[in-house]
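I hope you will forgive my troubling you with a question about protein structure. I set the record out below, with my sincere thanks for your time.
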Amino acid sequence: MSFFQENKNVLNLIKNLNDNIDLKKKFELSNFSFGAALQVTDSFSFLENQTNISEAILGVNELHKDKIAPIILLTDGNQTIGSDYEFLNSKQPIYPIVIGDTAKYVDLKITQLNSNKYSYIKNKFPVEIILNYEGDKSITSQFSIFTDGKTIFRKNVRFSPSKKSVTIVANLNASKEGLQYFTASIRKLTNEKNIKNNIKNFSVEVIDEQTKILVLSSVIHPDIGTLKKSIERNKQRSVDFFLIDKFKNELIDYELVILYQPNNKFNSIFTQIKQNNRNFFMISGANTDWNFINENQLGFRKIAINQTENYGAIYNDSFLTFLQEDIGFNNYPPLKDKFGEVSISKEHQILLHQNINGIQTKQPLLVNFDVNNQKSAVLFGEGIWKWRAASFLTTNSFEEFDKFTGSLVQFLASNKKRDRLEVAAENIYPANSTVNISAFYTDKNYRFDARATLELLITNKETREVIKIPFSLINNSYQLEIENLTSGEYTYRVEVLDQDIHKYGRFKITEYQIEEQFTNANVNKLKQLATKTGGKLFYKNQIDDLKNELLENKSFYTVQKSSVKQQNLIDWKWILFFVISLITAEWFIRKFHGKI
């Protein structure tokens, strides 16, 4: 409303409706305002930074679910959050009054921008941008991405009346460690009215994490080459391979050890793993010595015989250790391992269950452990090279399989201990938005501690102004909201008072306001909404027509209800007492005169 400079007009329309005597005789008028949520109010501020029309409609329907209550909706029809209101089912008829400019203007805008929050240094990360054009002529513009005042991506784009949308994918280099801010921009047209939707900011945190992985094997097998290629697809990871007889180095040089089909020659390696709590990934197969492994008491056992079995994979959608979607595991070729039953004696998470000849079992095929700051995993079967080949045949790419191994390795290779203080905040906030920051604090046993006092110190990098705000305890987290921060970059420190525990971070408030991305009112959607709900669309100069429609519509009638209440006379105590008194008095009078 503020962007279209319609505040005064809206207030006048509301007053006109509320002051109409005929409407007040026929209807009980209730006023609501809405931004991100619905509110009952008689005053309107126009300060909300988000618009959720669907939430407002559903809320009013719920409040009047047993009544006849037509809804007058004053809006420009532009929604920034929530489900699409155009297809809502509303019991009440809706009468939209279109607010804002209804004229069509030439406009270029960045409708959507998708990017990863994190990337590894020296890697490329994709950014997907969706551009839209409103106009009736063919035009050419230029899309660019900037960081630190430098152009790092540029592409010419063409639009026409038949081609109003273009999707661009830019693969950017992660060349600098830390939180990096970027600006995406589409060059404005000469006659473009709204240029605030031509720019969007985004951020990526670049992580410098070099990971060295050791593969030790008792045999030469195609799985070794597959693991090396798949893992090293991430340029931040390197794989060293040794046959167990040839390995003379130290395990301390590696973040993760992959043990391929171990036997008794791995005795010194297992000793080091147990003594130093090293992370490992074990893959078993036809050449695995399960008697040796069972003797090492690693928390899992397999009573195996010398006969092999083929084990298919069944994806477990309850797996929670790390995010891993089903990439078609059920359709991958079976793996081969010695036949036997697996038993596990420590806390674990199963990603894949075994499928034996079409029979689904609860036996693990791929299981993860995270106990006492040691992470490990076991794959009960050789032949993973077939999985990578099958993934390529299905998708024409190794990407899905390599992402799977990458996620597994990332979990296993991380030695980061859990922090007692975790802070959640966005890296970028739109202008005038509410900054929400939450924190989770635990005691030394990593149980939530509600006794602590947390405080936030926030600093504007340009003005050096410092604000101190305490956190509020809400359910099982500490939370706070900050409003009215000016655009710019901020650093913050969250600390636990009386404890030497704190976390640092930073965020940026952009000049981009989400409500200013629209050039005109969305008349088509509002008209569709009115038609679907049995209402009718009106413009702000048709307020009298709206009033006549409501007053003359016979479906909006006053409901009168009568009720009959029956009550036993015995419940009326004073009347009962009076009647009994009269009867008693009559009896005594008759007795006195001898008539009884």
About this structure: The two ends are 90 Å apart (CA to CA).
